[in-house]
Structure formats: structure tokens, C-alpha cells
Amino acid sequence: MEVDKGKGEAEETRKVAEADRDTVTLKSSDGKLFEVSKEAAARLSTVLAGMIAGGSIDDNGTDLKQIGSEALENVVDYCNKHANSIPSAALISSSISFNTAPFKEPEEWERKFVDRLSHDALFDLVEAANFLGMERLLDVTCHKISEMMKGKSPDQIREVFNIKNDYTKEELEEIRQELAWAFYDD
Amino acid sequence: MSRAMPSCSHSRPKRASPPTADWAALPPDILFTVFLKLKQRDIFRGADSVCTSWQRVAVGEPALWHHVDMREISLRSTRGLAMLTTRMNRSAGQCSTLFEELPSLGLPTNRCGWGDQEAPSP
Known about the structure:
The complex is a heterodimer of chains A (186) and B (122).
Chain A (H helix, E strand, L loop, with lengths): L6 H14 L2 E5 L5 E5 H7 L1 H8 L8 E2 L5 H16 L23 H8 L3 H13 L3 H13 L6 H8 L7 H10 L8
Parallel strand pairs in A: 1-3
Antiparallel strand pairs in A: 1-2
Chain B lengths: L27 H9 L3 H6 L6 H9 L6 E2 L9 H13 L6 E2 L24
Pfam families (chain B): F-box-like
Protein name (chain B): F-box domain-containing protein
InterPro entries (chain B): F-box-like_dom_sf (IPR036047), F-box_dom (IPR001810)
């Protein structure tokens, strides 16, 4: 309620209020504003943590020009849900792959969170998570994407992700020869 | 035809509209993270030959091949040796860890560093 105050005074009042706020306002590439818990944002995103610590958060909405409103809404939703969730006992994956550092399996709510996304929304979210340095969200979204590939042939994967086969015949033949062994069952 | 795209502010799945995301253009660092979560066998059999940009990540990231899970490989067959060779080639000489016992090779432990030591002579 900053209706009839002088402009300078209103500005001053708002600045004081913003400093005390426990949320930050983020602005998507298409100009939509979203509020997110400052604590969750700082904990889950290295980029936002840096901006908060460095004082470069804009009270009128910090511009995130690389992130559309749908993806930003999902980011904010994830942060808020994360802030409210009670971490379960660490479910360290026994072996998703030997390449990975110990990876805490997605919690049930995280699974549901990514499962309900369209492929497009998942794509935008994984890019947003990467951009914002959200390690956990990146892990969860990449895990989902990897599950969409597991046990599938190149053709099936192309179909799932709507990817064009851009190999020449010769290149495909070369791959087939190099990896011939991979296509036989044990 | 020239109708403006409706703005989309909901996070509901938009199954009705055709997908627009260009998965072939997924940034390599993200794709790398995805591949790290797959079994090497899944990369070879699938992701590897989906498209040229994905293959560049699969082949061009030695870190994906640093570790070999010997449970996926039988050294008693030429196929198993071919699998191992491809993985070691892709690791750009940095294949440093082999998991699982290798009784057939008479190796004493379930880990042998091939990175820092001299590789066994072929």
C-alpha cells in the first residue's frame, strides 16, 4: 500500500521493505514475475545465491532473460516444494552407472514433479536448471531424461525425442561396424 | 495461420501441441550429465548413434569412459574384448578403474589403476 506517498518516500520505504523480505522476485524472458523464497533460492541455485550475496537482486524483478515463464514457474515451484519437503533418508543409488558419483535418487515428489512435464517443458527446465546452477534440479531432470533413453534403440530414442537421423548412409555403416558387438545379446 | 502464439503461463503438460524442443541441440554439458547416468551399454546401443551432435558428446568426452564396469563385459569372447577396446579407446588413455574381480586375468583386487601405471602388455 504505497498509494499517496511522495515518490522518493515511497521508494525509500520499499527499499527498506525489500531488504527485510524473505523472498526474491524473478522476471522471466517474457516479463512475468515470480516470487521465490530467498533461502531456498540461495540454497538451490549457485547463480541466485551469488546474486543475492552480491546485492544484484532487483526489487522490481530480477531479469532472467534466458528463461521463459513456463520454465521459471517450474523452477520457482521446485524451490518452494523443496523448501517444504522433509529430506528422506539418503537413498544413495547402488549403481545407476559406474560413472556417476554417488547420486541421491530423486525423492518421490521430485519424480512426480518431472513426470508431469511435457517433453518441451522438461527441455526448458533442464536448460534453466543448468543456467541457474541448480545442481539438484539438474540431476533430477537429467535422471528423467536418461530414463527416457534406457534400453532403447537409436530409432526408438529418435522417436521419443523427435530427433532427425542426420547421419549419411556411410557414417551409419561405419558405426554399425564399429559397434557391431553392442547389438548382440549376451 | 498468422495467429499469434498464445502466451503460456501454465506448467501443465501441453500434449496437444506439437513438440518444439530441439533435443539434438541440447547443450553438450547437459547431455554429458545425462549420459553419465546411463550404463555404458545403453550409450553404445542407443544414444551413441541417435544423431551426430549426440555422438560427438558420447565419443568426445573421455570422462564417460574412465571407468569400465567389468560386470558388463565377458573377456572370454571376442565380443567382450571388442567392447573393452572401444571403451578404452574412447577414454583417451585415461581408463583408470576396472570394477569387479577379474579372476580370468588373475588380478588380485577389484581395482587396478591403468591410468598411472603401465598397462599390461597385450
